[in-house]
Amino acid sequence: MPTLLARSAHSVPPAHSVPPARDAITPAVTPAEGARVQPGPRVIGADVPVPVRDGRHVPYANLDYAASAPCLEAVHEAVTRALPYYSSVHRGAGYTSQVTTGAYEEARETVRSFVGGWRRSAVVFTRNTTDAMNLLAHAVPAGTSVVVFETEHHASLLPWRRAVRLPAPATPAEAVSAADRALRESPIGSRLLVVTAASNVTGELWPIEELAQVARRNGARIAVDAAQLVPHRPIDMTALGLDYVAFSGHKLYAPFGAGVLAGRADWLRAAAPYLKGGGASASVGRTTRWAASAEQRHEAGSPNVLGVIALAAACETLSDLWESVAAREEALVKRLRAGLAALPSVRELTLWGDRAPRVGIVSFVVDGWNARDVALTLSDEYGIGVRDGKFCAHPFLSHLLGGDDPGCAAGRDTAVRASLGIGTSEEHIDRLLTALAGLTAR
């Protein structure tokens, strides 16, 4: 809730500031072989029963976090507490409108702190990462040279009017040198390097700090797709030298339809509104004068207040848990990858090798099995949810599979992806490994 109301005798608790209970905070663990993984903060639906083919109901093993993460209980509580005060934003004089407007703008500051944005950086709320990247593509000056790797998610690969696509680099060092060369050879003018922080296919971490240095050396800016990083690791735009960061609430345990584009405000202030309508305009008559601030200019219409409050609640909750979240995840990923490596018919997909640091995303193929059939069998017989397909990264997956066709023909050139997060247990990992062992033995 807004600061001016939070100090009054009749104020309500902050709608997006609901810390987890003390006993829900996970102590740090060492990801040693066979280490027991302690439970973390709770997510909604962690124990939901699902039917399997033999007629039983089993607790759902959700291993599809990279597509959409479940809702944190703290996020659910924040939204529930905000609902009675839900009202119009930026326009109403009534009490609930003031409360809602204050919560909305306070959430913006929470998100700015979460990404380590500098004080004057813009924080524009969007629908998701795809929307945020399209907003940035809309705002880049005409003639901007964009450099992007073909390993990107389509949200970062496709929006640009003019882009140089770099092939998949064999090593992180090659990624840095390829970006350096491409930016150096770009025409004189504004330049933008677009890169992921963590791959949505392999989970591998990209050298964004080194890439940011390359961008600065070449007079370019860098935009980072952090959708798969921020649910697992912190990010600090200022320390890393990043110009723009985009991510989605639905991957950050806040599935209420909000996303973020945070970064330098000048391109955003100079661009025409992404959407034209109420809120984006300062005055309308024979001519229209658009709002000066980047946030107002590109947030036309009634905003997704509850989505923004949910997103801020997730940011606040995770900010206090990074060390334990990372340690717990590393133990689970190590358990999963070791188990997959022991299955002779299963091949993990990786760009930079087994030792490349990564978040909790692992993609693989099973010899003799179509990826969709694997996913359906895991669901129907074992109550396990995974993703199959090309993960909105068609060129990248084709490269990993050794194919030349970047298309998405049904049942061909696809893989299975298991992704984990808060709420994933050792039993979920072991159930998946047991199920895959059974499949490959058939």
Plain-language structure description:
The protein has helices at 3-6, 73-82, 95-114, 129-139, 154-157, 172-184, 208-217, 237-240, 266-270, 294-297, 305-319, 322-341, 371-382, 394-400, 426-440; strands at residues 49-51, 57-59, 61-62, 122-126, 145-149, 163-166, 191-196, 221-225, 244-248, 259-263, 281-284, 288-290, 346-348, 361-366, 384-385, 387-389, 415-419. The protein has 442 residues and is an alpha/beta fold. It has a seven-stranded mixed β-sheet, sandwiched between helices. The protein has a four-stranded antiparallel β-sheet with strand order 13-14-17-16, covered by helices on one side. Strands 1-2 form a two-stranded antiparallel ribbon. Helix 2 (73-82) crosses helix 11 (305-319). The longest helix is centred in the first third of the chain and has 20 residues, at 95-114. The radius of gyration is 22 Å and the shape is globular. 49% of the residues are buried.
Keywords:
442 residues, 17 strands, 7-stranded mixed beta sheet, disordered N terminus, 15 helices
Gist of the model:
The chain is α/β, with parallel strands linked by helices.
Task: Give me the secondary-structure category.
Answer: alpha/beta
Strand order of the largest sheet: 4-10-9-8-7-5-6
Strand content: 15-25%
Major sheet characteristics: 7 strands, mixed
Oligomer: single chain
User: What general outline do the C-alpha atoms trace?
Assistant: globular
What is the tally of beta strands? 17
What is the CA–CA distance across the termini? 57 Å
